[in-house]
Amino acid sequence: MDDGKIQAEKDLPRERDHDLSSPEFSSVGGDSALPTQQRPADMEKEASMPAATGPPPPPNGGYGWVCTACCGLINAHTWGLNSSYGVFLAYYLANNTFPGATSLEYAFVGSLSISCAMLISPVATYTTRVYGTKTTLFIGVAFETASLIGASFAWAIWQLFLSQGVCFGLGMGFLFVGSVGIVPQWFTTRRSLANGFATSGSGLGGLVYSLATGAMIQRIGLAWAFRILGIVAFAVNSICAILIKDRNKIIGASQLSFEVGLFKRPEYLLFNGYGFFSLLAYVVLIFSLANYANAIGLTASQASIVSAILNLGQALGRPPIGYFSDTFGRINMAALMTFLSGLFALVIWIFAKSYGVLLFYTVIGGMVAGTFWVTVAPVSVEVVGLRNAPSALNLEWLVIALPSTFSEPIALEIVDRTGSYLGTQLFTGFMYIAAAGCLVLMRGWKIGELDELARLKGQSLDELDAVAATADDNDAAAKAVGRKSLLKNCLKWRKV
Predict the structure, then answer these.
(1) SS3 of residue 430 by DSSP
(2) Annotated region Disordered: where (predicted)?
(3) What pLDDT score does 133 carry?
(4) pTM score, whole prediction
(5) Whether domain 57-253 has CATH 2.40.170.20
(6) Whole-number mean pLDDT of the chain?
(7) In Å, what is the CA distance from 411 to each residue of 100, 200, 250?
(8) Radius of gyration of the chain (CA)
(9) What span, in angstroms and rounded, lies between the C-alpha atoms of 428 and 286?
(10) Beta carbons of 28 and 382 less than 8 angstroms apart
(11) Which sequence spans correspond to the domains of the chain?
(12) Superfamily, domain 261-495
């Protein structure tokens, strides 16, 4: 092949596909490592392409469905496995597994796994950009497998901190960061639906492993339960890491740096409030229900079923939330579902003193409990625009590390001091309502911003493309107007 064709291939533009940063694009996926060699036929084909040709549109399906299934399975074997910690916690508390350990220390084990997954996201983003998606995923596989196998040999609480807490969280973080940006790269009009299916994997995983963990602990003991979970997680996550394909090279994806200047925007602070309060409530719910079941006199088997049904509710609820957010309004949907999470905790969970009522709550409450994880990426785009969404989400993962760490310890400390779960139930409900309040104020800002953009562009609201508008670098004036009218507009009905 002559040098001219090689040079032509090198000179092809690599434009960024802004469509990737659409509502369902999450920030934590970066560039994969580029291959060092290509087949001569491929190089000749690329050399013959017009220089002005942009990246091709996503296939909107095809192999994307394989990637969606793989991401769903990874979610099942990270967040889903982590959700089963409620079963472990109930067992630890009921059997004094590690003599001398307090309920507060047991609570920190589960919380550490989530906070470490969030805190490691900048490092995992770097490895994705420099070494590629598959490398990041396999690092996560190694950490997670080591954590579960290591926990099976733990004989002191500090060893559980390091294994089931920190090490598992690191593995979950690398797997989450490496996979979360893959699905949106393959879809356009079906993006919300595919994203909903992928995120529902955590609920299905929680359902299966809450039941499986409870059964294994009773029949083969705690140590072998950990080992079997480690072997299964290693096998499934490794297969998914091999099958997943990103489109980073095709679309020229790049990872933006952190922009701490976003914290100067009131609307972004409200976005952080949404995440902060949501995680304070969500972590309590997923980790406490099994122990609450024991507290009202249910058996260990019934407690594991309660935890499992909560995750079933999440699996059933997440796809519709993702699907309807496009038609009902992304901020509207997030606010309504988050408010319902708090309402259900206050009017159903508090009065769930029997097995049947508690199961009813786990289904209904579970369907809306994980609203944050379904809506965080779409809402971030509404708040900061397409270009700043990656940085906004990278910062958000760090913000929610704090409530992820301390929410369950706070909940169990309330129980220990009061001798009742009522304070914890009230705490959960009001935290969800506080998160919904942040979204209501945020929608007031968004309505004002869109009204001002429509005026500046001389368009009606129906004609205004809200997503394209927020990608405009010249909309600072509209954002400022939105901030001034935040309280006035927050209760107006509008699709936002």
Answers:
(1) helix
(2) 1-55
(3) 87
(4) 0.76
(5) no
(6) 81
(7) 20, 26, 47
(8) 23
(9) 11
(10) no
(11) 57-253, 261-495
(12) MFS general substrate transporter like domains (1.20.1250.20)
